Amino acid sequence: MPSVRTLFSSLGSLRDANRARAAFDDPGRKLTAVFPPEPIRPDSTGGLSLLLRVPTDSGGDVIALIHVPASGTGVIVLVINPATTVEAGASLGELIDESGWPVAVAVVEDILGMRVDHVMSLDIEALAGIVDRLGPLAVYSAVAFSTAAGEFVVGTNHLDGVRARAFVAADPIDDAGQTRTRGQRALLRSLIAALDLGRPAKDPQELVGLFSLLAAGSRTDAGLTTSVLAGLPGRLRGLSPVNILTVTLPTTSRRDESGHVIVDVDVEAVPVLREALAGDDPIGFVRGLASLGY
């Protein structure tokens, strides 16, 4: 028979879970008109894809496509530099700011040839809260730099929420955010590793705490509900952590005549990535990208 302490703890978790579920599914907080017209969209592959945006004060937003292939053999997290030129000289970040989610989704679908099923905007404060709950996180930086939140060294940095927030927003090198995007990739890798999908399942309070932070700090399309999230464990059952891959979208960079850095989609690597994503099991190709430092 459970102890009184355990019983009240479970009841508290249940109340918190119900509040978080109500907040996440609240129709008044859902994003509307987020997808482009259906005739121009790719067909579904049977997988599940989420386009995530974490706005930052610096304009160096975290933008990532999270994809679970239909095979269920892994999870791909593709981090995209918002400065990437995608259409008529405009960057992805500029298009999102000027035209909103439908254009952003259309551009990502066009580049990758795959359907975006859901979108999520996550407050940077919520991301910091999640880091605090799981951290401190060990995150690698390729360069040393300073921010108001402190010093970051070459190599491993141990980040709490405040430092993580500064880390993903900082632009330490004049390279149009390429170094920053790799730092964002490093943080997401560490965050996903810290989630330890089996641990929250064994600790309901941990799961409810994380979900409460997510629910309070996110807005999603109407189709992304707690029921959809509840189905993810079934898709990911038995998944090895080595098959959760976080990489950057392959790009190239150059300086124009005025000295500004221009970031372009890699016209050699991305078509091959696009072909792999359309296949039955893209995990092997993306693992190759990770081994090359993407």
UniProtKB/TrEMBL annotation:
Protein name: LytR family transcriptional attenuator
Residue ranges constituting the Cell envelope-related transcriptional attenuator domain according to the UniProt record: 65-193
Entry superkingdom: Bacteria
Organism: Brevibacterium celere
Family the UniProt entry places it in: Belongs to the LytR/CpsA/Psr (LCP) family.
Transmembrane segments: none
Pfam family, one: LytR_cpsA_psr
Lineage: Bacteria, Bacillati, Actinomycetota, Actinomycetes, Micrococcales
PANTHER family with a match to the protein in the record: POLYISOPRENYL-TEICHOIC ACID--PEPTIDOGLYCAN TEICHOIC ACID TRANSFERASE TAGU (PTHR33392)
InterPro entries named among the record's database cross-references: LytR/CpsA/Psr_CW_biosynth, LytR_CpsA_psr
